[in-house]
From TrEMBL, chains A, B:
Transmembrane segments: none annotated. GO terms for molecular function: alcohol dehydrogenase (NADP+) activity; butanol dehydrogenase (NAD+) activity; metal ion binding; methylglyoxal reductase (NADPH) (acetol producing) activity. Keywords: Oxidoreductase. Residues 189-357 form the Fe-containing alcohol dehydrogenase-like C-terminal domain. This is NADP-dependent alcohol dehydrogenase. CDD domains: BDH. It comes from Celerinatantimonas diazotrophica. The keyword Protease does not apply.
Length: 387, 387
């Protein structure tokens, strides 16, 4: 097992009717800014439920945080906070709203002399203070509700950059599975695949005897395989949605990645597909991952075999056959979730590969993966397998 | 899945040579009180290593915290702190030293007008403040390094009581697996069984569709079954000790117990065996657990079958046969760790059962277990199976 440092102070309040707990979670005299995305938080009644729970507290709203939240939008919330000085930010939404709120919390405390975008340029290392914030999660997928990272897009600069800081853990996150009942199928399917690939990126590398980490990762993957299709078929099944929600949180809260190598090459190539062609993040992962595993199966062989045996219960065939079966099963699972796994499913062909490889080079993504050996050429070969 | 509230802010610094990180973890001007148990922290050099890492900081020592730490000893540390006002407490040892330090941290900030023992009488609910503290763990077993509970014995009152409070989480815990190399076999064996039974108490109840919790618990149990015997056979095997250490921490840091029923009847009966006959805590659990599972197998049938299949990979026989095999395997595992699983292994016979049942009644342990249906009579029947 590798050495590690694990710290996660976010309090999780999980279950049915837990939004009412906001009254205990926040100071009675807190002046609160509610942050949310589009109309769904209003239409579903979640925003009203949150406001009711906040009772007599002073509450203002900032809506319109978009999927892939933009600096241009978020900075308006920062200005609002500087003008009106709130004590607490409360994000109501999914990963984009929570990611955006993390940036806003840090930027609102940032030195007036400095450009807040520099937080992104420094991957968050220059954050020295942040407003306290919490979240009410409505979309299980990214894990942002229990981690300290976020991604912000600067439209003006054509940049999408990540940041993290120990100062931007949510103080608490409320996870009420019933709030996911009204989500569109597409978002549920994306959430399942996103959580699945988050887990794979921290698990399918090379063995370092991280036995607990492996077992936990395998447990999350097996749970997602079991609940994913049911989450589409039975949208009001509480236990299915609860297990999906807790799986997605556990997939990216630092625990399964502590003390083990991590890959993330699939994510980096996927980001370029989103940037160039607007494909949903999770869908880009479903396209790229089977190719990454296929092309890199030699260096990943030991873990791929373990994945075949423990997650997919494949026991027949040579090691290579077992691995091929496991990769095929992975792709079938994504398809079962209604997600296209080929570039051609998104009307893309071989012509997309060269410009995308150039973008990887332009963004410095030239030595990806747990062994830093995934060159742009290898990424191109991965994509050639995925036409 | 049941509703739950999960919060655990302890930072874990894990790995070889991590004691040196104390220098980053503590303020440069901190005045530190080191707390430890017997001579082993000195003899092994761990205490010196800790002091070296603390560099020029003002450091005082308080040694002699015993296994099953006593109020009488701990209160002397409280007096020392009140007289000399330290900023930070640093526990160097196992569960007893860390449990004791939690009490000291709270009692040192307790109202001078009030009796600090009332902290135990109120299960910690009257703690309003505690000194910050951390730990350097030398003995993997109890999980105290990453939870907010402790147990203190009052010799004068013949009482052993638990307490907990969100204010007594260690700020950090350093887990260096090499520090366990010199532990006696008996302590390693006890630690493995203690962590195993902690997990079982939160897992072998009745199903509530806590799929992630079940998978994680099964992962810890499978890891302990794999590393336990190796930890005895290969005391200097780093990965074995690392996985044992991380398993024991994960077994009782709140995660696998969040959102699921919990039992703890085995622990309550075991505590009486320790109190009356001085048997090591883990050994009492090894005596009691197989009987608890046998007698209560009807109400635990669904989870026992799952345990048989997923943890012990038993696939043959009727449900009842599979369950019996799993209980037998559990007992064999404890024996494989060199631990006696019968009262007679500790020179006790049937005569011990009635007085012990009376003690359970005297301590209010009359409705134990996840269904509150384990009466003293049932506990007596459990022990009759264990002669």
């Amino acid at each position: 097992m590798n050495n590690f440092d694990f710290y996660n102070p976010t309090r999780i309040v999980f279950g049915d009717k837990t939004i009412a707990k906001l009254d205990e979670l926040l100071a009675k005299d807190a002046k609160v800014l509610l942050l949310y995305g589009g109309q769904s938080a209003k239409k579903t009644g979640t925003l009203d439920e949150v406001k009711a729970a906040l009772g007599q507290r002073q509450v203002a709203e900032f809506g319109g945080i978009e999927p892939n939240p933009t600096y241009e939008t978020l900075i308006k919330a920062v200005e609002m906070i500087k003008a009106q000085s709130f004590d607490f930010l409360l994000a109501v939404g999914g990963g984009s709203v929570i990611d955006g709120t993390k940036f806003i919390a840090a930027a609102a405390c940032f030195d007036d002399e400095k450009d807040p975008w520099s937080i992104l340029e420094n991957y968050g290392t220059n954050i020295t203070q942040a407003l306290p914030f919490g979240s009410v999660l409505t979309l299980p997928a990214t894990g942002s509700e229990m981690n300290n990272g976020g991604v912000v897009t600067h439209k003006g600069k054509h940049a999408k950059l990540p940041f993290r800081s120990p100062l931007v853990y949510p103080q608490f996150s409320i996870l009420d599975p019933t709030k996911t009942y009204t989500l569109p199928e597409r978002q549920i399917a994306n959430g399942v695949v996103d959580a699945f690939v988050h887990t794979v990126e921290q698990y399918l590398t090379y063995p370092v005897e991280g036995m607990i980490q492996d077992r936990f990762a395998e447990g999350i993957l097996q749970t997602l395989i079991e609940v994913g299709p049911k989450a589409l078929a039975e949208p009001n099944n509480y236990d299915v949605r609860a297990n999906l929600m807790w799986s997605a949180t556990m997939a990216l809260n630092g625990l399964i990645g502590a003390g083990v190598p991590q890959d993330w090459a699939t994510h980096m190539v996927g980001h370029e597909l989103t940037a160039m062609h607007g494909i949903d993040h999770a869908r880009t992962l479903a396209i790229v991952l089977p190719g990454m595993l296929q092309i890199r199966k030699e260096s990943k062989a030991a873990k791929l075999k373990q994945y075949a045996q423990r997650v997919w219960h494949i026991t027949e065939g040579s090691d290579d056959e077992m691995i091929d079966q496991a990769i095929a099963k992975t792709e079938e699972f994504f398809q079962q979730m209604g997600i296209g796994t080929r570039l051609s499913d998104y009307d893309l062909d071989e012509a997309t590969i060269e410009p995308l490889t150039e973008q990887l080079k332009a963004h410095g993504m030239v030595a990806l993966g747990e062994n830093n050996d995934v060159t742009p050429e290898i990424s191109a070969n991965v994509l050639k397998l995925r036409i």
